[in-house]
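Sample A.
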Amino acid sequence: MEGVETRLDAAMQACAAADMPVAMAGLLDFCGDVLQLSLPHGDRAQLTAILVEQFGECDLLVADHEIEIPRLFVSDMDSTMIGQECIDELADYAGIKDQVAAITERAMQGELDFTSALKERVGLLEGLEESAIDRCLRERIRPVEGARTLAATLRSKGCRTVLVTGGFHHFADPVAQDLGFERVVGNRLGVAGGKLTGLLAGPVSDASTKLATLEDERTGLGDGARVLATGDGANDIPMLQAADYGIAYRAKPKARDAANGRIASAGLTPILKLFGIPESEWVEEFSPA
């Protein structure tokens, strides 16, 4: 504990030297170096850089106001709420996982246009039996540790939960039901004669869709409602930046740098700690009153 406190003191001194007084700084979990800070004035990116220099890659959230439990939670799915990229795993059933995964990685790094990369990957799946999706869900798709607890606990605190993905409803709908999300926005795979057509059915769900979904949901909650967004890839950047609390989960560099919070841990429950929710109030499954 003493070493952690020493590093926090050094970080605060570095902030003071940069003319960035920190109004509140707390270590919410000494074992995991979970940090919560309030920065009324100054450069958020500079403060984050100071903290990373002192603590390494840690779990943190920086805000310009007193941090409070959000009333809306909008999250990406692949590699955020689940540990896999669904299209990569589905491609394995067609024997082309490496080819598809390489495109996915470049798209998530922000090196490729998302829509073009999505259509290219979907096109490579043409002719695959639709039944492969159920097999993939059953055999490959698993939630990230703490995903169900995160969603259920936030809902128990009056927070609305929305899953918005550049992936597919074939996967997102059952994942949302399992994890306790109230709304799902995503893409639809074209199917004909029990096989994938290689085309999308309907409009593309992309970065602009994620942002529009967040803004639409926020409008419905009224003024002053704090919003949490989580994601890991370049197509999550607009919604991470629009949220009051944009938390990048084990994210690609561009997404991580765009967010005001980050999770380096393997699970998602540190987010609950960042909002000051004690473990005694965590719930594993939401049960409406």
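Sample B, a different protein:
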Amino acid sequence: MSRLLAIRQQQNLTQEELCERSGISVRTIQRIEAGTQPQGFTLKALAKALGISESELVGKQETPTIADTKWMKLINFSALPFMFLPPLNIAAPLLIMFLKKEFNPVTKRLVTIQILWTLLAAVLCLMVVILNDWFAIRSKYMVLIPVVWLAVNIFIILRNAVSIAQNQTLRVDLSFSLI
């Protein structure tokens, strides 16, 4: 649950009432309640309308519930069976995320990690082709590149699973999300 939603409900306000008080559109309020971080004028106007400080509005979100943690684990693990088919290691977590409407920052970053790993796989495959064809570098160790890539991806998934189980955060984390 977003901070704005929790504070708005605590003050018994509808989105329309908050819109009138703050001058921020209902659609913007909906986006913020869905997980977008308010910034600049929007943040100031909402904080003033709610009678709270800006830091309270963007403060740390509530800890995830057990049900949220369960879905975070499932989204994380859903990439494992499809690691050998890189586009599917994105599709499976995304499908679960959309079907279960789990759009919290942690699940978004989990999918972002898999997107980046898929892009890295494409770059590594191109590197192997370029080294083999263009530069005529032939080595029995070229096979290690995809093997190491898969091993690191498995490690990241398992390490994040342990971290999600222990404290509902990611151990291997990104400071951004592509979703």
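Observation for Sample B: The chain has two domains: 3-57, 66-167.
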